[in-house]
Amino acid sequence: VPPTAVELPDHDFIVSKPLPVRRAAPKQKGSTHAYGTEKTEYLMDRNIHKAFPVIIRGKGNYLYTKDGRIILDTTTGAAVSCLGHGDKRVIQAIARQMETGITYLATSFFGNNTVEALCKELINGTDRQMARVYLTGSGSEAMEAAVKLSRQYFYEQDQNTRRVSYIAREGSYHGNTLGALGISGHVARRAPYLPFLMKNVHHVSSCNFYRQRQGRETTDAFVARKAAELDAKFQELGPETVIGFVAEPIVGAALGCVPYVPGYLKAMRKVCHKYGALFILDEVMCGMGRSGTLHAWQAEGVAPDLQTIGKGLGGGYQPIAAVLISKKVFDVFSDGSGQFVHGQTYQGMPIQAAAALEVQKIVREEKLCDNVRIQGDYLGQLLKQLLGNHPNVGDIRGMGLFWGLEFVKDRDTKEPFDPKIGVAQKIQELALSEPHNMTIYPGTGTAGGLSGDHVMLCPAYIVTKEDIHHIAHTTAAVVKEFFSHGL
Ligand code: PLP
């Protein structure tokens, strides 16, 4: 009998032996152990009619449900976790900050050592390529702040600046608030709100080698084609009207872990700088270690002018995100009005900063980015071994602990499934049901036909080789079982 939630032993925190999750939990009265058993009565969420498994405890890589199941957490929410659940060091850091009595901070009145220490840690983590940190409560808010910072950057230099537009990418997701959604190229999430979204945002194609490669095109030729497309967009809009180009180095939610092609970031930055525009990277999902380097751009050595981070920054312990600001941008504010015309009540965030500082210190001191690279390579290798020839798996791609599988009706034509079927959603539900008991993050062809259904795997950075083995084999079992039923 597996441990129940109340009598969990401490030692299953970091697992280095075959996992217990395969054992069926004892059924409780009224429990079906299918996907979910309880509907929410008061919480307003996206899926109003769905019944969910109810989780009551988290530890390491595991979640424990009210009806006695043990779930391997392979998505960590939406890719937030570095250290897994319930790390006592982070809990204690939060408690210590609470005990100081400084739980909020009006940054226009006061400074705070915890907040400053976090900012220093973050700047050091960019190899001092970035100069300042603007803290926010979510990735969407960080994108809002990046939009305002980039516009004010030009306004500081000339109040009559003609720089009013952005170039972003199709099949991108930058957040759900109106400014961030306005930049995004996620067709389905934009649709209900189109009348309210910024008009002066223009999209170029994403960087998706699987879907966009022409014939036997090399990566160099592919990158050159993307740079030419961006250059042409600048020319079409008038280069003096463009504030910046915004991109996710590895596309998360919209396309399912689609990484940049080597050379792409450098080529795109070159085009931006040729026209005096800013190069803005959204690393809310792919950053803070998830790709195997602390920042995804570090693998190419291509620092942006502005960068957003989130998710892994607080590691899931507190909601916190940020904009990292280069010296070039900061100097314009410093030499200009000396003010960023923005701000929110809770922006000082000492509690969130305490949590994030502890998470970041542990990631650095325990060299967890190395583990992300090692285990990530192993995960990719296993997924390709187990599913590389499956007739409905079109592409297996990723970097670090950020892997995506894209499903197709036909591998040769790459024809996606009808989004109405909800292939990815159904795969997620199957994975979370008995006996698989594992989270998988779904994306159901919602990016406007730019990709098919996909799922993402993004476990915490503490995963072991055994965990990866289990994740890959469970994923393969779920995918095979799902498609064996026929659609
Ligand atoms: N940018 C990217 C790349 C994201 O993946 C997300 C969220 O998934 C956001 C921005 C928005 O972040 P949040 O959900 O914290 O507002």
UniProtKB/TrEMBL annotation:
Example of a GO MF term: pyridoxal phosphate binding
Keywords, sorted A to Z: Aminotransferase, Pyridoxal phosphate, Transferase
Cofactor(s) the record lists: pyridoxal 5'-phosphate
Gene Ontology cellular-component annotations: cytosol
UniProt xrefs under SUPFAM superfamilies: PLP-dependent transferases
Keyword Transferase: yes
Keyword Transferase: yes
Family, as annotated: Belongs to the class-III pyridoxal-phosphate-dependent aminotransferase family.
Protein name as catalogued: Aminotransferase
Organism of this sequence: Hyphodiscus hymeniophilus
